[in-house]
Amino acid sequence: MNINLFPNSGPNKIPKDERQMKVTAISDGKILPYILVDLYKEQTLKDTRKILSSTEEVLMGWQNAYFCNKLKKKIPLSQEDKYKLEDILIPEDDNYLLVIEMNQLPSFPKVKRQHNIEKGYMKLQDGSLVAAGHSAFFIKNPHLMSIALNCDFQSICKKTRKNFDQIWMKTLEEEGFDFLDEEPKNENDDKLTLSECTITYCENGSIILSYKDLEATKEYIEAIESALDENLSDERKLEALNDIGKNYGFFWIQEFKLGKKFVQVTQNGETQNKAVGGDYAKHQNISEWLKSPGSYNEWGIINYGPKLPLYLLLSEELQSKIKKLIGEKILYADVYNFRVAHYNLTLPIIEQVRLPTNLLPLRDCKLFAAILNKVDRKPYKNVFALRIDYLNEDTPYFVIHHIGTVPNLPQVIDLSISWMIIGYEKNFPIEPFVNNSSLKYVWTKEQNNTNILLPNPIPHDHAWVTTIILRCNRNHGYQFARSVALISHHISQLNDDRMTTNVRLNVHNNNNNPLNFEINCTILSENDNGGLIPVIVEGPTNQRWKNRKSRRLLSNDRNLFTCKWQSANNDNYRLPNNNNLIFASLLCLNANAVQGCNDLSLNISPKYAIIKSPNNLANNPNCRITYIVLRKP
To answer: 549: exposed, middle or buried (C-beta count within 10 Å: 0-12, 13-18, 19+)?
Structure first.
């Protein structure tokens, strides 16, 4: 828009009644005249306000300015869409006079420009936040935005081990003063001399930016689309997204708190202080500075609120591409310990999976679980199979079957279930990407399509983790967890180069109803661990299976086998019996070994790997085990 200050440039006569508009802004009794062109008389006052909110000389906000009618009376904000501009214009010689009354409340458009509100941000290595050089978004309706007015004064004087820079950074990003009481992180921090810290701030207003208020700029969208070009490698795509973040920022600030703040720290006789807002000439005198005028023109940013990733402003299609590029990770992992006592083991044991609420709904997430028999003496006397049944999409249960003859006497058996949720991060990062915790190998296979094609050669030491998933809504007539439906499975290798793997599944269902199920599969290794810390990774190991036949007279049972845990060096050891996560799977490395693996269920205990078959086997199983022990960071 072409704007000319009045009276420095006089009005020109415009034919056909297309007159320039002389805008008179009345502020605190002062008259500020401007000459504007390109305003249309047919516009509503609401549309005119939007234009004037971005006009440099006026910056008309929702709170600080009102249109006046021909009688120079204020028009309520709620009535602006009912008026056209021509309804309030006053003809005056060769101009139209437009009267705007301004008050002393803050102008959102002016504060927005003054403090880089309409910019993405990034965090530097020293912890400071800086606005990006290019705009990734714009505020859709700045003329309708307002500043929440507050009058919150707080002051504290306290001893702390933090230095001045640490305290200043903390006051910008954290509310209150609890950070002054944080425990020392190491011995060196504990030895630091205590500082005398004074923090005083006065919050006068705040601005909240919801994603609904914002829209990504065309330039930012085009840059993201270019970075996600299908012809680029994943590594190059991540580099390109990081480069975009350096120019446009990685996040926007959801809330800016405005006012004035003073921080002073005295340590070893030396005093440092810093202030924002208020009268800058009085920063060195705290009492005078506190008395300085509170005009919004002198407000500074005293605190940054929550940070939201800029990727949220993109289309769902672009968001989906970025999530897939980041890859799947272990979003949550835990160990569930419980005791089996006085159960009717002819029926399944049912335990609800206690999900973290922040991961609901579970859409696109995969659950994995493995059972550990913690009984130390003869754990192979009770063998269990584990799967996960979904009562509905967000209510999974552990379903545990006792395999084989149920003992006559009541049993007390301590079990633990290692379980984890793998999926795409629900929240985008607010910092540069680092490609070091995503999993390369994650699949969900249907029972009729069990072949897995490996895109890359898998590491030498690795562990398969597999879990049977049964969804009630896909099995009509299925009685939730009441049918003794035992599903066994293993992994078999079809060729020597490990490029193709087959998941073999066998269903044993006592009521002979067909079951619809799937199997979640992943491969974990020392370097591909989803963010957890690997303690032990072994696989595939060479195992010597020992037949554990019944002691009954003349028994020829050959359906229960054990082997001691061994490392690649054939050293025996016990698995840690603590809250580490332990996963193990059966693996057949060639087609000739498949027959020996059929129908086997794998159990793990601290001392033994245990496999049980519903049928007697002519020979000892010819299969190996892959297993991994993980702990949370």
So the answer is: middle
